Amino acid sequence: MSVIFSLVDCNNFYASCERIFNPSLDNKPIVVLSNNDGCIIARSNEAKSLGISMGAPYHENESLIKKNKVLVFSSNYQLYGDISRRVMSSLAMFTPEMEVYSIDEAFLRLDKFYGQDPYSLASDIRLKILKWTGIPTSHGLAPTKTLAKVANKIAKKKNGQNVFDLTNIDIQTKTLAKLPVEDIWGISRGWSKRLHNIGIQNALQLRECDPSFIRNHLSVIGERIVYELRGVSCIGLEKVMPKKNILSSKSFGKLVTELEEVEEALANYAFRACQKLRNQNSKTQGIYIFLKTNKYRKNDLQYSNSATKEFSHPTSNTSLIIKTAKLLLREIYQKGFKYQKCGIMLINLIPSSYLQNHLFEQAPNQKKEYLSKIIDEINHRTGNESIFFASQGIKRSWKMRCDKRSQRYTTQWEELAKAY
DNA sequence: TCTGGGGTCCTAGGACCC
DNA sequence: TCTGGGGTCCTAGGACCC
Fold it and tell me: Which nucleotides of chain B does any protein CB come within 7 A of?
């Protein structure tokens, strides 16, 4: 029995999430905006057919949106994250051989279901997910993950059924001939340009190339893609691994000039990063912070800088990390610029269980590490940020905009859906 | 006026060692 | 004039993904 991957992708995921608790949105054009209401990051089919493009700045589409009465939402990640968990745990009921690839995608292995035709099995899964969670999905079937991605793309265009089987070699050949190289998973603008330059326009041409020739142009990753297009599986299902780095960064709601405001924002991002760190039971061996002005404002003076610090002991102590971040910030902050964004990355994470005995330095303060954990627990029980550090401030004048956010129906008691 | 956030992997080249 | 060679480790930067 040969290998069959199925890529399951939620259709217009964020837009679909908004519809679950607000059925009046059905059949209407809706878009969801990125943090700070900057860009359009999700569109319903109706919004897509109006010509609103993915990733485009909101303000560039504003007239189109108003003219067509498109409904606009700020992103509501608490809601999307919760719906995602429901979809993924529903999928897991069909097979343990599954990889959660992103918030709205998962790969399944369906080849072990002897006797059942994969197409009808995928159709069955699709109907059940829709019934259980309210989220419509598309399913692409193929012998490799790269081909399953291709199949999924076609499935999405099939209204009503949304399943496509690309296990047959003749169908693969016909399909790849029509697929531009830039639509292949793993090949984006830079690489497709290089491929065009050497005369390769579509996926079939790439499949027929000598893999080592492609390796010279696109590294081993490109070589792997050639094999995957041939139906030779090189990329298996991956286990969920703890993150190696954790980044927390956001644009400010307005341009910021004062050190105190940047400090306050950075302390908040550090707090969030530390929560994520402890959540995956890791400690960090260092931090990297950065600060920058808005590169799109050509008339403003531009400045961007970063700083790194390694700890003598791995830590997950929020107060130490905030303190260190603020010290680094003072090294790179300069007066006279209008800042747009800052961020902190926890780097070189290791498991909490890993203990390193350092000969010359004092052992880290275990009590402080515990304290951080207790703060997490209290915040988890009582709702977000009941307890926080004074350096995080209370004014938070730099906070991002999200005026158009829907209710957090599933994660906040005060925002439960009401039945009248 | 307004332009997201959070990740991973690979390679080239420098530093350093014997 | 001649001025080794080979190996490893680390980092920055560039590519990709959602």
Answer: 1-11
